[in-house]
C-alpha cells in the first residue's frame, strides 16, 4: 500500500508570486529581469566604491574605530547592570526588608541607577584623559 504524498506548503508570498506568474508570464519575466539588472548595477557600484575606498583610505560607514578597552567596559557595566540590581533585590528581600517586595524593589532601582552613574563617571574620566593625551601630543609636536 503506497503512502500518500504530502503536499508542499507554500508561503503566502510564494503563492501570490506563482499566481501572478501564471496569469501574466511576461510581467513575471520583466520583474525578474528588472531585479537582476538592478542587482548587477548595485554590485558594480559597490565594487567601484570599494576600489575607490582602498585608494582614498576612507573608512567604510560600518567600520568601527572604537578601542577594545571601551567595548570591554561597556560589556562589564552591562553585566553589572543585569546582575547587581537583581542581587540587591533578593538580598534586601531576604535579609534587610524581610518580605517587603516594594522596599526591595526601591533598593534595586537605586542600585541600578548607581551602576549607570558609575558607567557615566568612568566614561567621563576616560574621555578627559584622552583629551589630555591629545593636548600633550600636540604640544610635543609643536615644541
Notable features of this structure?
about 140 residues
Please characterize this protein's 3D structure.
- The protein contains four helices and no strands.
- It is an all-alpha fold.
- The chain has two domains: 12-55; 68-142.
- α1 packs across α2 (25-56).
- The N and C termini lie far apart (95 Å).
- Mean pLDDT is 73; it is low at 52-56.
SSE blueprint:
Blueprint: H1 12-23, H2 25-56, H3 68-96, H4 101-142
Helix pairs in contact: 1-2, 3-4
Q: Determine the N-to-C terminus distance.
A: 95 Å
Helical content class:
over 70%
Alpha-beta classification: mainly alpha
Radius of gyration: 30 Å
Summed up, the helix count is 4
Largest sheet, strands/sense/barrel: none
What is the succession of H and E elements? Answer: HHHH
Rounded mean pLDDT score: 73
What fraction of the residues are assigned to beta strands by DSSP? under 5%
Shape by Cα distribution: flat
Number of domains: 2
Low-confidence stretches: 52-56
Please report the total strand number as a whole number: 0
Quick structural overview:
Required for the assembly of the V0 complex of the vacuolar ATPase (V-ATPase) in the endoplasmic reticulum. The protein is an all-alpha fold.
Amino acid at each position: 500500500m503506497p503512502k500518500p504524498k504530502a503536499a508542499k506548503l507554500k508561503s503566502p508570498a510564494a503563492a501570490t508570486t506563482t499566481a501572478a506568474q501564471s496569469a501574466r508570464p511576461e510581467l513575471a519575466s520583466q520583474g525578474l529581469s528588472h531585479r537582476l539588472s538592478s542587482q548587477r548595477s548595485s554590485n558594480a557600484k559597490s565594487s567601484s566604491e570599494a576600489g575607490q575606498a582602498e585608494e582614498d583610505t576612507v573608512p567604510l560607514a560600518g567600520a568601527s574605530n572604537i578601542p577594545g578597552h571601551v567595548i570591554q567596559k561597556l560589556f562589564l557595566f552591562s553585566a553589572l547592570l543585569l546582575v547587581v540590581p537583581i542581587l540587591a533585590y533578593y538580598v534586601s528581600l531576604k535579609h534587610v526588608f524581610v518580605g517587603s517586595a516594594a522596599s526591595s524593589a526601591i533598593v534595586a532601582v537605586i542600585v541600578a541607577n548607581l551602576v549607570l552613574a558609575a558607567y557615566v563617571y568612568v566614561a567621563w574620566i576616560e574621555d578627559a584623559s584622552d583629551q589630555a593625551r591629545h593636548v600633550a601630543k600636540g604640544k610635543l609636536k609643536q615644541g
